[in-house]
């Protein structure tokens, strides 16, 4: 049994030479901040996330205020029991005060459940808004962004960073209001009971606040490092555990090496997680110990007050005060912890806002042109284009002075050596990139003035690298036309010459194609992509080396499907094998981003220039690949 290995090499930026990949632990570098923007996250911007839900939050605030008032009432009821009801033997008053304490506990429980429900709902809606905003922003980014950014990094921002903010956005707002209200109410009640003991209780509070803020700043730095590390691990998982990654790792004998790399990254994450959780833990523990020891200090202070000249503090007042003091310290500790958590979360918000602030290079005009029926007339008018250069380098032009006219229903083939700008030229028509000079028009309208809906409906692209979702065949085809009927799907598959193969599968059109369509061969995936484009029925078609990775027999089958797809459409073909474009109305030969020859197949052969040389080379490759008949002897 023989196995054939197909290795697919993808370019980083189209028509650019391949660059060495960074090591697996490489990091994505965020864009430079615009002049005048602050490095730190603006808390007001975070608060604006909650603005749509201010009505619900106001209701939560009311519940918090009621809960705080009810909680403060309990120590006063306790004082009345100890100082009045029990010493005076008033059983009726004792029962009433005891029922009051039970009622406060029940009320606090009900208020707590309602607070949790509303605050959690609001927090989850805010997280949903963030996830959706980041995803929508990324959908608007140009193709160049995704050629520079690892998929795992993008996934980590949406999953890990936003997920890490869950506790903050779901409970922080309620916790802050609840604890702050409880502290204020408790302090007021403590002053009402005894101002001297209140001063003793609050002496160390400023020190505690300072310690908590310092711990929060330290954890924020570590959190930033931790999220970068998690993004690196996510990128490794995405790249190495995909079908392509597993295939490459196994065939290159690098499975053990990849495992070691992942283990090293995981080990780094362990260290960061431990540091994050332990940072300032001893200092916070000391705060907890001091607060737990405060009742003893209060008893001592009360004893000194009773033995001096001042008025003695009653047992009921002392017990009620200690109860209030402990009730105040619990929300105080919670406030300090919340402050630490908020500062830690600022690192996560900063990473999310970096994505939300990414500049969108390709945007729709405020009042774009919409064409109801696109004819398909395409023109390149003195077009220049250069990819955005790497930092510290100068932009090099990829296309220069391109002038081409393609009437509706006509066909244009673009040929040239690797790196000549063929694919880049095709990317300018659907605005995957914008020209840096000149213009590209569709039916006489600059494509930059057209609405995105018009462009997407008018232009279909079939590329060399076919992408299929991990879904059924029918779902993959319906991606082009969600409301397509079964009959329309079958008709498109028949036109692409793939229906018979699909019908022969056990589950037919319900067959799962596997990740990236790996359950289908290269030719089958290409015909599925062609069927998907037929279903969309665009008047302009771009074929970017759609058959270059196929063997001769499969190429012939796919070419028949392409011929059916191209009939009656304006077609731009990026050709690798010249045998597929001999019948094109016109052929443009690119060299170093410029058109050096143009004409029909026969006209260009007669010129005996670059195209003729490419044609001769193509014929030699075909002859070399054609099996020769065995020699016979008489």
Automatic annotation (TrEMBL):
A single Gene Ontology MF term assigned here is: ABC-type oligopeptide transporter activity
Give residue spans, biased composition: Basic and acidic residues. Answer: 14-24
The molecule here is called ATP-binding cassette, subfamily B
Please list where the region (Disordered) is annotated: 14-37
Source organism (scientific name): Actinacidiphila yanglinensis
- What are the ABC transporter domain coordinates in residue numbering? 378-617
Family as reported in the entry's similarity comment = Belongs to the ABC transporter superfamily. Siderophore-Fe(3+) uptake transporter (SIUT) (TC 3.A.1.21) family.
What keywords are annotated for this sequence in UniProt?
ATP-binding, Cell inner membrane, Cell membrane, Membrane, Nucleotide-binding, Transmembrane, Transmembrane helix, Transport
Q: Which InterPro entries does the UniProt entry name for this protein?
A: AAA+_ATPase (IPR003593), ABC1_TM_dom (IPR011527), ABC1_TM_sf (IPR036640), ABC_transporter-like_ATP-bd (IPR003439), ABC_transporter-like_CS (IPR017871), P-loop_NTPase (IPR027417), Type_1_exporter (IPR039421)
Q: Where are the transmembrane segments?
A: 57-82, 94-118, 167-189, 195-212, 284-302
Membrane topology of this protein: Multi-pass membrane protein
Record-level GO cellular component terms: plasma membrane
> Which part of the chain is the ABC transmembrane type-1 domain?
58-344
SUPFAM superfamilies the record matches: ABC transporter transmembrane region, P-loop containing nucleoside triphosphate hydrolases
Q: Where in the cell is it found?
A: Cell inner membrane
Superkingdom of source: Bacteria
């Amino acid at each position: 049994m023989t196995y054939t290995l197909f290795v697919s090499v993808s370019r980083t930026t189209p028509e650019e030479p391949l660059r060495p990949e960074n090591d697996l632990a490489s990091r994505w570098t965020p864009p430079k901040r615009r002049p005048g923007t602050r490095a730190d996250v603006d808390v007001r911007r975070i608060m604006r996330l909650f603005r749509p839900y201010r009505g619900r939050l106001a209701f939560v605030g009311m519940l918090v205020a009621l809960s705080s008032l009810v909680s403060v009432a309990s120590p006063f009821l306790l004082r009345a029991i100890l100082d009045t009801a029990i010493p005076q033997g008033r059983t009726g008053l004792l029962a009433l005060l005891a029922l009051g304490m039970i009622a406060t506990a029940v009320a606090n429980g009900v208020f707590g459940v309602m607070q949790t429900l509303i605050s959690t709902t609001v927090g989850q809606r805010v997280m949903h808004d963030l996830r959706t905003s980041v995803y929508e922003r990324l959908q608007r980014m140009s193709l160049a962004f995704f050629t520079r950014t690892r998929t795992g990094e993008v996934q980590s921002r949406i999953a890990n960073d936003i997920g890490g903010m869950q506790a903050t956005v779901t409970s922080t707002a309620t916790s802050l209001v609840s604890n702050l209200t409880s502290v204020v109410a408790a302090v007021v009640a403590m002053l009402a009971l005894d101002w001297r003991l209140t001063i003793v209780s609050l002496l160390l509070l400023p020190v505690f606040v300072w310690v908590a803020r310092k711990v929060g700043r330290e954890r924020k730095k570590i959190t930033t490092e931790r999220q970068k590390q998690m993004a690196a691990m996510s990128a490794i998982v995405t790249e190495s555990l995909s079908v392509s990654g597993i295939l490459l790792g196994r065939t290159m004998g690098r499975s053990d090496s990849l495992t070691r790399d992942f283990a090293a990254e995981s080990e780094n994450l362990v260290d960061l997680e431990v540091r994050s959780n332990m940072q300032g833990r001893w200092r916070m523990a000391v705060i907890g110990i001091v607060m737990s020891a405060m009742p003893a200090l209060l008893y001592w202070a009360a004893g000194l007050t009773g033995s001096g000249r001042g008025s003695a503090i009653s047992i009921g007042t002392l017990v009620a005060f200690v109860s209030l003091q402990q009730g105040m310290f619990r929300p105080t500790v919670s406030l300090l912890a919340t402050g630490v958590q908020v500062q830690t979360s600022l690192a996560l918000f900063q990473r999310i806002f970096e994505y939300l602030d990414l500049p969108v290079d390709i945007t729709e005009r405020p009042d774009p042109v919409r064409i109801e029926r696109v004819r398909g007339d395409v023109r390149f008018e003195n077009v220049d284009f250069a990819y955005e250069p790497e930092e510290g380098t100068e932009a090099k032009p990829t296309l220069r002075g391109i002038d081409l006219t393609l009437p509706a229903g006509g066909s244009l083939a673009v040929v040239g050596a690797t790196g000549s700008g063929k694919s880049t030229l095709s990317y300018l028509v659907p605005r995957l990139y914008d020209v840096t000079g000149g213009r590209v028009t569709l039916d006489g309208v600059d494509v930059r003035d057209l609405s995105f809906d018009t462009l997407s409906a008018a232009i279909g692209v079939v590329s060399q690298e076919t992408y299929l979702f991990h879904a059924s065949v029918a779902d993959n085809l319906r991606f082009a036309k969600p409301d397509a009927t079964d009959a329309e799907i079958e008709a498109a598959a028949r036109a692409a010459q793939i229906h018979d193969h699909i019908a022969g599968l056990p589950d037919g059109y319900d067959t799962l194609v596997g990740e990236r369509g790996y359950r289908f061969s290269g030719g089958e995936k290409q015909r599925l992509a062609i069927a998907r484009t037929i279903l969309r029925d665009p008047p302009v078609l771009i074929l970017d080396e759609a058959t270059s990775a196929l063997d001769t027999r499969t190429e012939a089958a796919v070419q028949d499907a392409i011929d059916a797809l191209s009939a009656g459409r304006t077609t731009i073909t990026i050709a690798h094998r010249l045998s597929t474009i001999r019948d094109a109305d016109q052929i443009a030969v690119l060299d170093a981003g410029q058109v050096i020859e143009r004409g029909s197949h026969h006209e260009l052969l007669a010129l005996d220039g670059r195209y003729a040389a490419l044609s001769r080379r193509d014929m030699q490759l075909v002859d070399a690949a054609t099996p020769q008949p065995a020699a016979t002897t008489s």
